[in-house]
Amino acid sequence: MASQRKTDLVLGSVRKLLRVGATPNVLNLLQKRHPVDIAEILRALNDHERRAAFEALAVQDPRLAMQALAEVGVDLGAALLATRSPADIVRLVQELPPDDAAALIDAMPVESADQVRDLMRGQGSAAVGDLLDHQEGTAGRIMNPKVFALPEEATAGEAVSALQQAGGVEMVFYLYVVDDRRHLVGVVSLRRLLLVPPETSLKRIMTADVISAGVDEDQEEVARNVSSYHLLAIPVVDDENKLVGSITVDDVIDVMKDVTTEEFQKLGGLEALDEPYISTPFGTLVKKRARWLVVLFLGELLTATAMGYFEKEIAKAVVLALFVPLVISSGGNSGSQAASLMIRALAVGEVTLRDWWRIMRREVLSGLALGTILGSVGFVRVTLWQEMFGTYGANWFLVALTVLFALVGVVTWGTIAGSMLPFVMKRLGADPATSSAPFVATLVDVTGLVIYFTVAAVILRGTLL
Amino acid sequence: MASQRKTDLVLGSVRKLLRVGATPNVLNLLQKRHPVDIAEILRALNDHERRAAFEALAVQDPRLAMQALAEVGVDLGAALLATRSPADIVRLVQELPPDDAAALIDAMPVESADQVRDLMRGQGSAAVGDLLDHQEGTAGRIMNPKVFALPEEATAGEAVSALQQAGGVEMVFYLYVVDDRRHLVGVVSLRRLLLVPPETSLKRIMTADVISAGVDEDQEEVARNVSSYHLLAIPVVDDENKLVGSITVDDVIDVMKDVTTEEFQKLGGLEALDEPYISTPFGTLVKKRARWLVVLFLGELLTATAMGYFEKEIAKAVVLALFVPLVISSGGNSGSQAASLMIRALAVGEVTLRDWWRIMRREVLSGLALGTILGSVGFVRVTLWQEMFGTYGANWFLVALTVLFALVGVVTWGTIAGSMLPFVMKRLGADPATSSAPFVATLVDVTGLVIYFTVAAVILRGTLL
Questions:
Q1: Which residues contact A312 (CB under 8 A, 6 or more apart)?
Q2: Which of A172, B276, B315, B433 has an alpha carbon within 20 to 30 A of A240's alpha carbon?
Q3: Do B102 and B195 have their domain in common?
């Protein structure tokens, strides 16, 4: 992208100009750019430079300054605003669509946020305040309450001139049609408006079967619908089907990104961070990681118990201990593969709870195949080392067999456990992504030890044991 | 969503009607629905029912039938088409935007796909054929070559009437402006067209700094740009900046979903599947999983070597073997957490390669904190069991200390390895997501054993060892 290369070039110049205090030149450089590019530059600057650049821009072109601020990310954005007076903040955030404004105010320190909200309500800027009444994670919280709607009796021509006078409405692609009590009754695309004679009534050209979102609906559900119906925006209605706002596809993309981030973190075996890694305070970061890590550790302590149970066998045949990490981690790895496959297949709706039995049969076969492959490699390894170094003594063949069969058993079990755990999680109402690689590995470690030592007991009885 | 509940209800009726052969009634039920909902019903039917329902729809309303087919997913869609004659397929796929048509043809068996392509080229439907000349994963492959463009001299009024006559162009929001050699010189939003007097020339109202995608650009890069600049569509240009197509936001969302799926699979420690799990043949599924699993296994074999190296110590103090799984898996778990955090932070651009040192310092501290927490829990566990069951004999305190310090060391090392591996991968030009939980765990297992036995050697020398 030409545009991004230019951003890199301009960053150096901005830095130099800020250092010598050449504010007008900085303005000159920034004002020609897209808010997204300005935000990229702001992010790359240090705190001091960033504040100077933003101040300069806010004086000259408050709208552009705020558009860039909205792109910087809410945490950094709120920090840039926080030192200003509440009245000043109110003036500036009104340059933004209410959903972006609400997100910014939300990210400010509680006290100033409250002051700003009170002031906005007092000034009749109820839109932002109303948004904040909705719960985080719902459609109501991310919608834009300024939505363009007209009555059914209006004509296409009237709609076009209303649109021309509107202004300030974020990205319009659809015109919503409401009855006299603001119930949502239809939708007309902007393009369709252009294609009909001006005197056509909206009622005649609207699509009556509107796909909408409830104001309390989960934002992930909203994102799924916008994406599967290929919408550019979705109207938001209250529980009486009255139009209260709309959500545009760019906000939906942001929701999708956040969801993916959360799933990644869960998949890695930690609680989802609410903020970006970089801006998460150290204490929070450790707490979010420690909680799951301790739970997993407590589970993993059972391996010490299981190993203790086989202590006599290990004492008799120390060679058994040598393969413990190999065997249990192979189970964990195959389980982690199966779990990731299932978590994603469930997330995109490719498989559902009903499919569990079909998956189970397939995964048992996969597990047996994978176990046989790994078991054979293990068998060859023991044989080779025996031939070359005589590592495993007279009973090496039985040791090799133990490794082979233990791997078949543990890998098969790991695959079954890994593939079924996401289904169990979903059935219990939890997020399937909670069945993370570490969780599956811990589960498989304990049972894997039991499988391994049981196989060993059967094969080595009378010789090593 | 009201619309989806209705879909579930209608599915039963469709099934019943198909069974008694009441095709007109099936048509009646389906024709009123959104293509996405019809696709959902088609997916839920069995092969036989699906074919019957699609045939009925294709005869009556080929456009709707094909729109639904495009939503069913390319594999199932191609299967539904494959039994028809090439001429018939050509007729039907022409109901679709070229990018969807190309994807469907791509998914058909090679022979019929070639016949269809030849036929289309012969009939002058070059658009689809041209798409297929571009490499998979590039902008050129997912773009729609039917793009709406006008010369700079055209007026807003002319643009509106051109738009009214266009038709067949997928979702228009932007009008692209080209010079007389079709170089892309500007863009005008549909809304802006409405706001100016009809005689205004496009040149006066267009934005000249157009964000565009190169035809050979990676589709992920395109998706990133569309999402960060909040675009609804992005024009695609060839290497002379000539306009050759455009990509709409809904296609970008599909790319984002596919990318997420791939990352999930890599994160789970397997090669990305090219098709959905369910439609991946068993052999391919096993192969894609086995390859990484064998690589990891070969790495994990080093644990057997490492354990062999400490065989004498284990024989002297079997108690050491008991904590091996606990210690190494704690390292793996903390490493997996750190890796997922970094992989995602790198993917969304929140951190870059340049930040590695800052992250490293932070993660060393996190690792020490987490290691101390787990180590303390481990210490308490050994102490408790000793008090209650006398499990660990006279030297229990030294064993407890060994577990404590080994955990601090291994967890810190796991955290460092896990957080830095994604940076190393990125530096080497590989996908950071390759540093999957299983990969990190394997890496940490071997070194974890060395750390554990070294700590043990220091603390237990002269007593147990």
A1: none
A2: A172
A3: no
Q: Between A396-427 and A356-389, two packed helices, what is the crossing angle to 10 degrees?
A: 160
- Among A266-270, B129-133, B189-193, B420-424, top mean pLDDT goes to B420-424
Q: In what order do the strands lie in the sheet with B233-237?
A: B213-214, B233-237, B243-248
Closest Cα in chain B, distance from residue A112 (Å): 27
What is residue A429's three-state secondary structure? coil
Interface of B with A in 342-381 (CB under 8 A): 342-345, 348, 350-351, 355, 362, 365-366, 369-370, 373-374, 377-378, 381
**Which of B87, B110, B135 finishes a domain?**
B135
In this predicted structure, the answer to whether residue B362 has a pLDDT above a threshold of 90 is yes
A298 with B377: Cβ contact below 8 A? yes
Q: What is the pLDDT of residues A199-233, one digit of tens each?
A: 999 999 998 889 999 999 999 899 989 988 888 89
Q: How confident is residue A71, by pLDDT bands cut at 50, 70 and 90?
A: confident
Q: Which residue has the higher pLDDT, A77 or A416?
A: A416
CA distance B115 to chain A (A): 31
Q: Which residue of A has its CA nearest to B250?
A: A230
**Distance (Å, whole) CA B312 – CA B314:** 5
Confidence of residue A107 (pLDDT cuts 50, 70, 90): confident
Taking CB atoms and an 8 Å limit, are B307 and A298 in contact across chains? Answer: no
The answer to whether residues A294 and A380 belong to one domain is yes
Residues A203 and A308 in one domain: no
Chain B residue at shortest CA distance from A298: B377
Question: Closest partner residue to B36 among A209, A229, A273, by Cβ?
Answer: A229
Nearest CA among B176, B185, B175 for reference residue B240: B185
Final residue in a domain of this structure, among A137, A171, A191: A137
- Smallest CA–CA distance, residue B429 to chain A, in Å, is 19
Complex prediction ipTM: 0.79
Residue B235: CATH number of its domain: 3.10.580.10
| CB nearest B277 (choices: A264, A301, A345) | A345
Q: Are residues B118 and B240 in the same domain?
A: no
Q: State both tokens at B223.
A: 């998706």
Single pTM value for the model: 0.80
H or E, element range at B174:
strand B174-178
Helix (H, G, I), strand (E, B) or coil at B172: coil
- Asked if B309 and A391 count as a contact pair (C-beta separation under 8 A), the reply is no
Q: How far apart are CA B376 and CA B452, in angstroms?
A: 16
CA B114 to chain centre: 28
pLDDT of amino acid B190? 79
In this structure, the answer to whether residues A128 and A170 fall within a common structural domain is no
- Looking at the complex, report in whole angstroms how far the Cα of residue B87 sits from the nearest Cα belonging to chain A: 30
Dist. CA B315–CA B145, nearest whole Å: 72
Task: Closest CB to B337: pick one of A268, A342, A366.
Answer: A268
Q: Are B14 and B30 in contact (CB under 8 A)?
A: yes
Closest residue to B261, CB basis, from A229, A311, A344: A344
- The pLDDT, as a whole number, for residue B167 is 60
Domain membership of residue B25 (yes or no) is: yes
The count of domains in chain A is 3
Rounded to a whole number of angstroms, the distance from the CA of B379 to the nearest CA of chain A is 11
CATH number of the domain that residue B28 is part of: 1.25.60.10
The answer to whether A370 contacts B289, with C-beta atoms less than 8 Å apart, is yes
Which of A120-134, B169-183, B331-345, B415-429 shows the lowest per-residue confidence on average (mean pLDDT)? A120-134
pLDDT at A170 (0 to 100): 52
For A300, the closest chain B residue by CA position comes to: B326
Please judge whether A323 and B300 are an interchain contact, meaning their C-beta atoms are less than 8 angstroms apart: no
